[in-house]
Amino acid sequence: MTTETAKSKDPGDWPTLLKDNARTGGQGQHPARSPERAVWQFRAGSSVRSAPILEGGILYVASVKGVLHAIDVVTGTSKWKFQAAGQVHSTPSLSENRILFGCDDGKVYALDRHAGSKLWEAPTGAEVWASPVVCNGVVFFGSADARVYAFDAASGRERWVHELGGRIYSTIYAAEHQLYVGCGDGKVYSLDASSGTILWSTPTGNGIDSSPAVAGDLVLIGSEDFLFYAMNTSTGEVRWNYETGLGVASSPAVSGDLTVIGSKDGFLYALETHTGRLRWKTAVGEVVTAPPVIGDGVVCIQAGGTFALDSATGNVAWRAALAGAVQSVPVLAGDTIYLASLSGEVYAVR
Amino acid sequence: MDRRTFVKGGCIGSATLLMQGLDPAMRADVTPPAAPPIELHGLPDYKASPLGMPGLFPGRVIELRDPNAIVRNRVSQPIVRHMLEHAMKELTGEKSAPGAWAKFVEPHDIVGIKINPSGAPACCSSPEILREIIGSVQSVGVPARNILVYDRYSYEMDIGSYQALLPPGVRIFGIQEAFAGGAGYEPNVYCDANFFGEWETRSYMASIVAHEVTKIINVPTMKDHSASGVTGALKNLAYGTFNNVARTHRAPYSFTTPLIGLMCTVEPLRSKAVLHIMDGMRQVWHGGPLTQVQDFIDQPGILLVATDPVALDTIELEAIETKRRERGAPSLWQHDPNSITTNSDDFYRDAAKNLFFRQPGHVAAAGKLGLGVADLKQIDHRTLSA
Predict the structure, then answer these.
(1) B275, CA 20 to 30 Å: which among A94, A260, B324, B328?
(2) CA dihedral defined by B52, B53, B57, B58, rounded to 10 degrees?
(3) Do A327 and B122 touch (CB under 8 A)?
(4) pLDDT (tens digit, 9 = 90+) per residue, A284-314?
């Protein structure tokens, strides 16, 4: 698989949602002990409901009021900021010298990641909450206008558009030739990456907010029908599903044969990737909608506060009463964790 | 209500209403503080609509119940479609569902659907019911872009995943991002009262209600409420339209009576709220409005439809009171100081505990303001089988 956004030189980089296009979410990082102090705190000026990303010593955070902040991770100070024309709920993605994010004004913006200047913008018919994903020089994303878009990453020129049956808030998983995405019409779709042609679609029992991950020949995704699904990547056939107590808006983190998913029932579930068998479940809050990330021996999740659970047992290793944004994701980078909060604070804790 | 109305607590305040016999339990236990004067500022020169509360059918409440409408906590889209059609035809006397909807909505309207996501995900306005309402509004000729699903807090709407679950084209809108902030509110339309010495004494009306939508379809849920007794049509409208409302509770007291009813009289809210569809798929009988404790949430599969929010909430109040009695919980009207706790964990564990002296009298108080019928004997409550 060609994953440009995952080709970072520094293993501590985190250039897109859940670290890289493979959604490995923090593997190899070491947040095994409780953070003891805040290295710095940055005020974004309004709520943060998306996830930070990190590359080359710069943390990028989008606030709901439409400001993308580039923050120096050493000092916690602003390098630059960019004001978009609408609210931003989309997690940015980095690709070469570009940073891309969706906006409620219906556009995806591409900025120069070093200067914060706009390179191009791509229009859609409604807000874009999903994160743009870059693969083989093409940016893929879904919009609330029910369409999936493919744009040239360098020029912003449209490659193709394909309409699905409902709003799209799920972030596309881009493999070499196939895309996978959940849709508000309750279906999981696979599209041909070069044309947008639908290769297969598989219905679930309600709309989908969750973003898929792929492990081997399985697409893994949650649905508001309370179920978490594993589908065959080639055919969409359901291999197994696992029932939770409420809707599954969270996106899975996958590490080998361990898949971790949160449910709105307040539990984090660890399942065997290839069978769906439950290894453990742990209550971490009243509601879990954020994706978990898997570090070295721990699973981290934002659910009211920030929790780290032993990935083997599900026991709570530590808990930090920081970062109440239940839509955000902690970024694990060596011995530092970066967190964004619903109240608009960004923290580096160590 | 006139543009500027000054209401003295002594005329309509909670104490006076309660002493008239609406709340005998409270009279026996504690004397609440008198409500302060409340000043109401409506939109200047707004012409009241005959569709405004109590609407076309004062005192009429249609109730449908189908145990198959919710099974294992999942709401059935086809069954709620049938229930809503049936209820709307019964409410209006029309033979067709589009004919029934046309009594309330016209093709040129901008329709706001006021949801209740505050208990999400355990108990909130069901996306399945919202989809049916949206489809029905569209059947009258209103385009999707002119339908706006809204509530106060966008983060609560996110938890309900409404953005992903509702049809494309419909706008989904949170009035404010988090707890603070005045953006999104009309500075000239407000209720002003100083309840507990708070520094900000005004609650402002949402701009989308004041200026953007032309009709409101109110979709409350069926829940008890730690301060107001129940949260139904009246509270969903009032406290979901005006900001800075939590200040009306300071343990153990609450001024939800009379403020909820008074807020609902302020124009243009009163005129624009033409229809109330109560989602009783789930019923919270303790721990409302935010509980996630499933032990306190039944799944009766009820849908209630009315134009009269007072009659509707009176039926809801009876239902919650009955359920609490069945479960051995104290009456919503009980004001025993021993039941009050300052520990929210106690409240969420024990149905005998509460955070405030509840104010279910807010429903009758709203009736006194002309918003509808609060006397059960005068309510045309039609219970139908789906």
Answers:
(1) B324
(2) -150
(3) no
(4) 987 899 889 888 888 988 887 888 899 999 9
Which one of A46, A166, A224 has the shortest CB-CB distance to B177?
A46
Tell which residue, A316, A336, A342, has the closest CA to residue A36: A336
Q: What share of residues in chain A are helix, strand, coil (percent, to 5)? A: 0, 45, 55
Tell me the shortest Cα–Cα distance from A327 to chain B, in angstroms: 9
- Beta bridge partner(s), residue A100: A93, A110
Q: Which residues contact B151 (CB under 8 A, 6 or more apart)?
A: B114, B115, B116, B117, B118, B157, B174, B175, B240
Cα maximum dimension of chain B: 55
Q: What tens digit of pLDDT does each residue of B318-374 get?
A: 999 999 999 999 999 999 999 999 999 999 999 999 999 999 999 999 999 999 999
C-alpha closest to that of B300 among B62, B60, B61, B64: B64
A65: which chain B residues are within 8 Å (Cβ-Cβ)? 177
Q: Which residues of chain B have pLDDT under 50?
A: 1-28
State pLDDT tens for residues B287-310: 999 999 999 999 999 999 999 999
Q: Are strands A133-135 and B297-298 parallel, antiparallel or unpaired?
A: unpaired
Q: What is the pLDDT of residues A310-348, one digit of tens each?
A: 999 999 998 877 756 556 788 888 888 888 888 888 999
**Candidate from A126, A265, A327 with C-beta closest to B158:** A327
Segments in B169-299 forming alpha helices (H): 207, 233-241, 256-265, 269-272
pTM of the full structure: 0.91
Output the six-digit token pair for A43: 């005020």
User: Please, which residues bridge with residue B218 across strands?
Assistant: B114, B276
Paired residues of A186 in beta bridges: none
Residues 6 or more apart from A161 whose CB is under 8 A from it?
A: A147, A148, A149, A150, A196
- Nearest Cα residue in chain A from B121: A264
Whether residue B322 lies within 8 A of chain A, CB to CB, comes out as no
Enter the tokens of residue A278: 């439950």
Joined together, the tokens standing for residue A82 give 């960019």
Mean pLDDT of A189-217: 97
- The greatest distance separating any two alpha carbons of chain A, rounded to the nearest whole angstrom, comes to 50
